[in-house]
Every structure is written in C-alpha cells, then in structure tokens.
Amino acid sequence: MSDMIHAENLTFRYTDFSRATHLALDGVNLTIPYGQFTAILGRNGSGKSTFARMCNAINLPSGGRIWVDGMDTMDEEQLWDIRRACSMVFQNPDNQIVATVVEEDAAFGPENMGVEPKEIRSRVYQALKMVGMYDYHLHAPHLLSGGQKQRVAIAGVLAMKPKCIVLDEPTAMLDPQGRADIMRILHELHEKQHITIILITHHMDEAVQAQRVAVLDGGHLVMDGTPREIFTQTKRLRALGLEAPQSIELLERINQTAGEQIPMDALTVTECADRLEAWLKGGAQK
Ligand SMILES: Nc1ncnc2c1ncn2[C@@H]1O[C@H](COP(=O)(O)OP(=O)(O)O)[C@@H](O)[C@H]1O
Ligand SMILES: [Mg+2]
Fold this sequence. Notes:
Blueprint: E1 5-15, E2 21-32, E3 37-41, H1 48-55, E4 63-68, E5 71-72, H2 79-85, E6 86-89, H3 102-112, H4 117-130, H5 146-158, E7 164-168, H6 176-193, E8 196-200, H7 204-207, E9 212-217, E10 220-225, H8 227-231, H9 234-239, H10 246-258, H11 269-285
Parallel strand pairs: 3-8, 3-9, 6-7, 7-8
Antiparallel strand pairs: 1-2, 1-4, 4-5, 9-10
C-alpha cells in the first residue's frame, strides 16, 4: 500500500533570471499516511510553499522524488490524476476566484477535469453545503468576506473529490472568526470524509490541533512529531524562529519568574488552566 505523500531526498532548486540558483528544499524525507492531519511550520523562506507545490506537481523535483497517492510527480502522464488526488488551497482568497457566481467558481475544478455537467452540479452543491456556503451559491464571490471566499475555494477543491488537501497559510489573511470557521471545516473534512489534510500555518494554535507537526528550516525537515512532542521543546522552537503556543509560554514564564516546576505541556487553554489549578492547589497545601 502506498502512502498519501512519500518524499525521498526531495530537493528543489530555483534558478533566477541571472541564473543564480537557490536551494529551497534540500534532501527532505517525509511520509504522510492516508487520513493524517499534518501541520507544517517553519519561518519565512524555510521551504513550506515549495514543498506544498511539489505535492501538487506544480514544482517538480530537482533531486530526489515525491510520490503522491503512489504516483511519481515526474511521470507527466499522471499529472492530472495527481492534481485530482491532491488539491491545493492558497493564502490569498482573491487570487483563487475565477468566476462571477459562487457555484460557477466552485465548478471550475471538476469542469477542467471533464466531469459530467449533472455530476458537477451535485458535487458543487454538496461541497458548498459542506463548507456552509450553499445559501450563497448564486452570489458574486468578490462581494464575500475573506473567510467566505476561502470557504468557496475549499468547496471548489472538494468538488474534485480529492484524497488530500494541501492548504498554504489559508487563514493568514482572515479575521479570527474566518480562521475559526476554516479550522472547523478542516477538522470535519478530516474526521467525516477521512481526507488527508496538510496545513501550512504560522498560527501555533492551529498547528496544536493537528495530529502531527513537521518543521522545515532552510529547506531541511528539522522536527517531526506530535504537537506535544514539538511544542514542549520551546528553546528549539525559538532557535527555529517559531513560538510555542501561548499556553506553554505562560507556564514557562511562571516557572522562570517564580522558580516553579509546572509541567509545560499544556497545548490548549483548558490544559493550561488545569496545570495552573493543580499548581495553585499544591501551593495552598504547602
Ligand atoms: N520563484 C523563486 N525564485 C527564487 N527563489 C525562490 C522563489 N520562490 C521561493 N524562493 C526561495 O526559496 C526559499 C523557500 O521559499 P518558500 O518555499 O516560499 O518558503 P516559505 O513558504 O517557507 O516561506 C526561500 O529562500 C525563497 O526566497
Ligand atoms: Mg510560503
């Protein structure tokens, strides 16, 4: 059985107009099984977007290989099957609007794939319902909020029935409500439809919600583990230009300033409150 994504020694080199080359990914080995929800983190320029585009065969390897749903992206004949299996959502929702009516916008992907018009209609309506945008199916996309546009972009991807969705900082331009909506939808797609989710983000509170966190730096995969394994390594994270979630930062600060030893493994506000409660109770007993 293949994996959803299997990258072996994956390398990508950009060549600019002056023929200077820049190594954006350098020997990345990463396997993502079907159905996993993975967050990819890394400071600006670490290679996240380059990796995302390689999952969709937009960028082809300069070295090494990447298999998507068992298909080698170097195999041109598989290009459309690869893009059908693994679809992308980008950061800027405005750049993803291709039509003047929401339902036509969401139909663009399956139309390009040559799906029957009747089937497209049913897929598009179903997809718009999944992201809570069915009521807007006859609206003009450019009049929607950023979060709503991003939901339409996700619907367009869902209408292609992908096994995997790669989202490159999809919430970066959204307000808190828009961000929360997108995260809720991603969890639903993951849990109910078993879609593999690869979420590139710089929001630690989003990465905490993933099953796995992979960190890129300078084109290398430098950390890979569960959110708890990754986020408790605060020093390492800082050296990589990343922060721990606020819950862990708070406990760390109390430990440092008050000389306490509260376990610093609180990934959520609730866990943080639990650790603080246990600490305060312990203090009362002293
Ligand atoms: N079109 C390009 N031409 C040359 N270098 C590029 C190009 N796109 C990205 N890079 C470089 O490749 C590296 C990785 O970029 P990218 O994958 O966009 O990182 P990230 O998404 O993590 O910010 C960066 O150093 C960036 O400057
Ligand atoms: Mg990027």
